[in-house]
Write a structure and sequence with these properties.
heterodimer, A: alpha/beta, Rossmann fold, 13 helices, globular, B: alpha/beta, 8-stranded mixed β-sheet
Amino acid sequence: MSTAVTPAPSRTGGSSDVLLRVENVVKEFPVASSKLFSRSREAVHAVDGVSFELRKGETLGLVGETGCGKSTLARCITRLYSITGGTIDFDGRDISRLEGSELRDVRREVQMIFQDPYGSLNPRRRVGSIISDPFVIHGTLDGQARKRRVQELMELVGLNPEHYNRFPNEFSGGQRQRIGVARALALQPKLIVCDEPVSALDVSIQAQIINLLADLQAELGLTYLFIAHDLSVVQHVSDRVAVMYLGKVAELADVDDLYGHPRHPYTNALLSAVPVADPNAAAQRERIVLIGDVPSPINPPSGCHFHTRCPKAQELCVAEDPPLVPRFADAPGHVAACHFPVADGEDLSKAEASIEQEDASDVQVDSVLAGLADTPGFSTPAREEGAR
Amino acid sequence: MALLEVEDLHVSFNTADGVVKAVRGLTFSVDRGQTVGIVGESGSGKSVSTQTIMGLTAGARVSGEARFEGQDLLTMSQHDLRAVRGAKVGMIFQDPLSSLHPYYKVGWQIVEMIRAHTDVSKAAAKNRAIDLLRLVGIPKPEARVDEYPHQFSGGMRQRAMIAMAMALNPILLIADEPTTALDVTVQAQVLEVMQRLQKEFGTAIVMITHDLGVIADIADDVVVMYAGTAMEKAERRELFYHNHHPYTEGLLASIPRPGDDRHKRLLPIHGTPPSLIQLPTGCPFNPRCPYAFDKCRTETPPLASVYGRPEHRSACWLPSNEPERQVERERVQAVLASRTEISTEVAKDLAGAAS
């Protein structure tokens, strides 16, 4: 489906410090056909040609809205899904087609932390046995040594090692997420894929887990792929950030470049929509409200996937898929997939698309309101008494 | 007189484990056309209190008063309450999929709501439903009005809920986490619709949320709840820039903010919220509070005026004088910043074992 092959962003520095290289990864899920005997050719294009590199010791943030393919990509990287196309190089070797014991070896090095601390722990097993699972599966530690290591891990992530024999329901959400972290750390992996690790937690607990992950990275030299929809959290934890839209990377840059000089109109819209816990900043900000909803990934729009909602869309965007390359005089590491990138200081809220957009009919609020007031029978009782 | 005055509201539930005291002495008021934000974490009683006001917590033990236009909603008969609910007070809930009936067309549900409270024809009600859907920004409302909830996206369902809540032009809108299940761009759309409706109709809004970003955006006054009671009440800017209660301070220090130094640590609140069955003595926040001293563990502080501003209230024993409070703040934050979340010795052992 992907029309243009986006080149893997090349960067300075030897390839030795690259831990993970994802190249043009495609993941499609076939859709069941509505007709009985015809085989469906339709597919959900969940990940549609994604390329990036992850360097040792860094945190790459991956943001995007529901359905943009960020979790699917995470599952492709950890090989929970087999990919439809492309390659995934981990630590210098292609892991995208590995099977059996070779795949198991890779899984020791690549671990995952899940979003839901309730759903990701078996409620009928004790915490000690949950955390020692990796040792059992990989046959690395036995007996007392295993128990000692599990208790060390529990202490490491801030749990009381004496709670070894408790069940998950005896822990709060934040503590459960710590159990998930301990389990992911058990085999001393090189890469941890964190799939929305804090979004199910209350804010005060979120901060505990964010600090925990940062402390662990500093002490153990871990590399994170950090997936979240909360842009403030991603900004806080990441060194570089990739923004995804409908299965493609829209923009990828160092965190300060991305938040300071967003080039892709989608990145701009996303950043302007984030609620900021600062009334003065919120009042100053010009919000770009996007029209309509994300199109279906079964039949994504031609050319640039964002053109149906983009305030700067032109004919070219419909015809041609923009490559992911540096725009203006940006650093080589700051790449955006947009034909008409946003310059610094440009006011996107005044931009007008030159092509027709599906849901662009702007509501004439005044006329609707006038109509509402005039409707017979609607001399609303509430209003009259309110005016009394 | 304020539009809604809640006074000393208590709500508790009998459970097998004991009595859960979900709301303990909550007092707040909402003026006409004003937006009051109620912020708090899971289990702080923010949803239970508003649901109780609307008579939606069956089986709860309730005491206190909730006067809406001078009438106490808590002692009102079911019949009278039905006339208030929906018509004068609209409600929006967090999960738009479970608050719309999956078997009925969206338009039908709005029409039913209109016809339950007014005496208009089906055709007129349907026209109004179409107008309302148009107003909340649903494209092609003439066609959409005859679709089912599953044919709507999450953001559209929530906008349909807003349309339904606004159908009879209520004076008060209670929005319980209306944007929590939505993506940020959709959240922006929904909040914009709510603000626009408020401006046009002069509706008062009670916005319940855990997201301080949403509060910073739209609230006039803010109530911070913890363990079933108000910890701090203030005007929005006062709360964000001159907060008094350590819980408010902790919440704000827990969220990363753009513009902050990225390498600065967040200062989380340690521990977890208390059980509502067995609350700590004294201030409910004392086990997690970095400032707590002896008095906090024995005596519950009243919600009293601080910083010499009568409309700013805080339930805390810390000095109510701003410079003194600031000195304390700096001392405690320095201590908090030096803490780590992990045991560094164990980490060094593990790192050594790995190499």
